[in-house]
Each structure stands twice: as structure tokens, then as C-alpha cells.
Amino acid sequence: MSVVKKPLSTDKGDFYHINAILSEEDQDLLFRVRAFMEDEVAPIINQYWIREEFPHQIIPGLAALNIAGLAYHGYACPGKSTLLDGMMAREMARVDSSIATFMGVHSGLAMGSIYLCGSEEQKQQWLPSMRRFEKIGAFGLTEPEVGSGASGGLMTIARREGNTWILNGQKKWIGNATFSDVTVIWARDVEDNQVKGFLVEKGTPGFRPEKMKDKIALRVVQNALITMEDCRVPEANRLQRANSFKDTAAVLRMTRAGVAWEAVGCARGAYELALKYAQERQQFGRPIGRFQLVQDLLVRMLGNITASECMVMRLSQMQDAGIMSDEHASLAKAFCTVRMRETVGYARELLAGNGILLDHHVGRFVADAEAIYSYEGTREMNSLIVGRAITGFSAFV
Ligand SMILES: Cc1cc2nc3c(=O)[nH]c(=O)nc-3n(C[C@H](O)[C@H](O)[C@H](O)COP(=O)(O)OP(=O)(O)OC[C@H]3O[C@@H](n4cnc5c(N)ncnc54)[C@H](O)[C@@H]3O)c2cc1C
Asked: What integer pLDDT is reported at residue 10 of this predicted model?
């Protein structure tokens, strides 16, 4: 893998030199992630996007980067800051949001559930092999009839019989789950009505993931509709420290900043492509970047990206300091995804016709942004969380 050594702070999308706040060692990691994404992912990703397939051959390369569980301490994980973890998500999404999402699900949601809610034994069993990508994780919360309202009650149920739990129900949209080795399933215990987490291993009888086809966004991410019919899971695979939806919410709180960083990366990738296009594409005998209205589009994009990145940088610093609350993460997720959606739209506009051709990549960013906009809390849900915090009134129902 070739690594070009140049300061990341000279990036065209890093107008305020935000990368410069990192140590050289951490910047070096971002270089390696960037080089990997540009060399190994960018050349092949459109074909996989068209075919709705995941490029499994990139997994050894991802493992070599040593980035799974980047901000977790112990269990052979690197123990870096969540700020670096976020910037890593940004680097991935700058080239492709599907691969960033694959990582967000594996390293954030799945490993994060075990890291926060697993017993010591469960962490020892799963986290080192997941860090090495020998085992791939998925996270199953959303259901066909329960999306935003997950905190209000899941329909997937768990019934205990001695040392075995029996799961019944369906999960929808579960990323990586067509091939994951372990899927964290959140289900309601019929005994006490509380939500509990279960580590369901690949091939467990009664556990049937089916690939969801014909998506118009994040087509490389393998989302599954999972049906569980009398799926038996040993008590040893119940997440021992997950006792209610509050524990599920703690996992989502930990990962939500990562989604805001993905939004920044997606916007930045589209902006950098648009800027290059503006400098090269000629109309009326000159580069279109010389036209005032084209410059206006570029400046709007850069403003969106810079504002979002400053916000999410501070959010990650607060997370690292242990002072980030739900509403802080929700404000960034809502704001950055709105700005991302606008930015990729401007990039598409700047490329005009070529903006809808996959070959020019920007069209893929526009489509993929739609999924980032809605997953891990829609704009409406995140607004309600912030609204409750600032007014003191809950407007959820
Ligand atoms: C590509 C992709 C990947 C995903 N990956 C995963 C995954 O790996 N694991 C997982 O568990 N889930 C996953 N999800 C699910 C995702 O988190 C949900 O799509 C999201 O939570 C929204 O739920 P919903 O789609 O059912 O929409 P709904 O909840 O049905 O919402 C529909 C609309 O109603 C609005 N709405 C709902 N309630 C209110 C309210 N009280 N007030 C105002 N407006 C409201 C919403 O904002 C939205 O606009 C994924 C989704 C996508 C698209």
C-alpha cells in the first residue's frame, strides 16, 4: 500500500486545519486509512455498488490498519481517542459511505454493545477476534414495525427456559447481518418487559437473515431482514450488563458522533470531487470554476463542511472528556446530516449531467447520503431529543 506523506492539514476540504490538532502518530493513521480507501476501495466501489455486493477482499487490508475498536481500552484494542475514531470514519466516508457504515456497524455498534454491556468473559471472547476482523459483527435493533419508536417497545421477544433463551420476532435493516459471525439482537424479555441483548452466532437454528435487495442508497452495505423462530440462545450469550433499553441507548449515544463524522466525510468527498471538476471542466472557453455562481456553490459547500466539522470535533472532545450527553450527540447528528444532504446536492448540481453518472462518483454520494440522513435516529427524532433538553418539555408523543 503506498502512503503519500504530506500534511493532512493542507487538504482542500480541511480549510481550518482541523487535522493539525492531532498528534503526528494519529495523523499518520489517518494517512494510512486515506491511502487504503483511495487505493483499494475507490477503484472498485462503483462496480460493487451496482451489483449490491460487499467487497470481502478488502477485509484483510482493513484488519492491517488496526482500526477496529479504535477507541476501546483493553482487549487488544488500540485505546485511541473517540476524536481520532471519528476522523477515521470521516476519512472512510470521504471515499465511500458504505465501507464507513460497515465499520460503524462492526466496530461501533456491535463491538460497542459488547464493550459496554458484555461481561468480562464475553469481552475477552469476542473483542480481540473482532478487532482483528476474524469475526464480523452486526447490530439488530430496528424491526419491520418498530423504527424510531424502539425505546417505546420492541416486538421481538425473549423467553427464558432454564439456561436457554428463546427468541421470536423480526429485525429489519440489519447491516452486515447476511454474513456476520455474531449479531447483537435486542429483544424484550416477556418476564419483566425489559430490553435485553443477545449474541446470536452465525448458523444458530431458527435465525434466518435474508438480504434486502433493491436499495437506492448504501448498496454495498448488506442489510438483512432477520426472522427468528424459536431461536435458542444460551444464557452465556446474553449480554450480562444490558438490563433495559437504557443500556441499548448508551451504545447508540456512544456511536452517534461517529455518524455525524460520516456525514462530514460524505460531504467532504463530494466537495473535493466538485472542486476538481470545477477546475478542469471547460465551458465558454474557460474552467467553470471561474464563474462566480460556480464559486458560490463551492463556498456554500465548504462552509457547510467546515461548520459541521468544527461542531463534531468539539463533540468528540466532549465525548473524550466524559461530558457528552444524548442531546449533544443528537444536535450534531441532525445538523451535520442536513448540511451533508445540502452539500452533496450542490456537488451534483455543479457536475450537472455528469453528476448523475456513477463514473464521476458524486451521484453515489448523493444516493448514499439519504441513508445516513435517516439511520441512527432521523432528523425528527434527534430534534425531539434536543428540544426536550432545551425546553424541559418532552414532545415525543
Ligand atoms: C441503510 C440503513 C442501514 C441501517 N442499519 C441498521 C442496523 O444495522 N441496525 C439497526 O438496528 N437498524 C438499522 N437501520 C434502521 C434505522 O435506524 C431506521 O431506519 C431509523 O431508526 C428510522 O426508522 P424507520 O425507517 O422505521 O422510520 P420510522 O420510525 O417509521 O419513521 C418514519 C418517519 O416518521 C418520523 N417520526 C417517527 N416518529 C416520530 C415522532 N414521534 N415525531 C415526529 N416524527 C416522527 C421519522 O422521523 C420519519 O421521518 C438502518 C437503516 C438504513 C436505511
From this structure: 53
The tens digit of pLDDT for each residue in 283-311 reads: 999 999 999 999 999 999 999 999 999 99
* Alpha-carbon distances, residue 172 vs 103, 140, 156, 210, 372 (angstroms): 19, 8, 11, 10, 16
- The answer to whether the CB of 148 is under 6 A from ligand 1 is yes
183 backbone dihedrals φ, ψ, rounded to 5°: -120, 125
- Do 297 and 350 touch, CB atoms closer than 8 A? yes
CA of 46 to the centre of ligand 1 (A): 26
Please give the distance of CA 286 from its chain centroid, rounded to a whole number. 40
Q: What is the pLDDT of residues 66-94, one digit of tens each?
A: 999 999 999 999 999 999 999 999 999 99
Angle of helix 245-280 relative to helix 362-374, nearest 10 degrees, comes to 160
Query: CATH 1.20.140.10: does it fit domain 246-391?
Result: yes
3-class state of residue 389 by DSSP: helix
User: To which CATH superfamily is domain 8-131 assigned?
Assistant: Acyl-CoA dehydrogenase/oxidase, N-terminal domain (1.10.540.10)
Nearest-CA residue for ligand 1 atom 26 is: 147
C-beta of 225 in contact with ligand 1 (< 6 A): no
Residue 382, ligand 1, Cβ within 6 A? no
List of residues 6+ apart from 213 with CB closer than 8 A: 52
Specify whether the CB–CB gap between 135 and 182 falls below 8 A. yes
Q: How far is the CA of 350 from the centre of ligand 1 (A)?
A: 30
Q: Does the domain spanning 137-244 belong to CATH 2.40.110.10?
A: yes
Q: What is the mean pLDDT of residues 300-328?
A: 98
Which residues, in sequence order, are bridge partners of residue 137?
Answer: 182
For residue range 174-191, what is the model confidence (pLDDT) as tens digits? 999 999 999 999 999 999
How many angstroms from the chain centroid is the CA of residue 67?
Answer: 14
Return the closest-CA partner of residue 366 out of 352, 389, 346, 395.
Answer: 346
Domain positions in the chain: 8-131, 137-244, 246-391
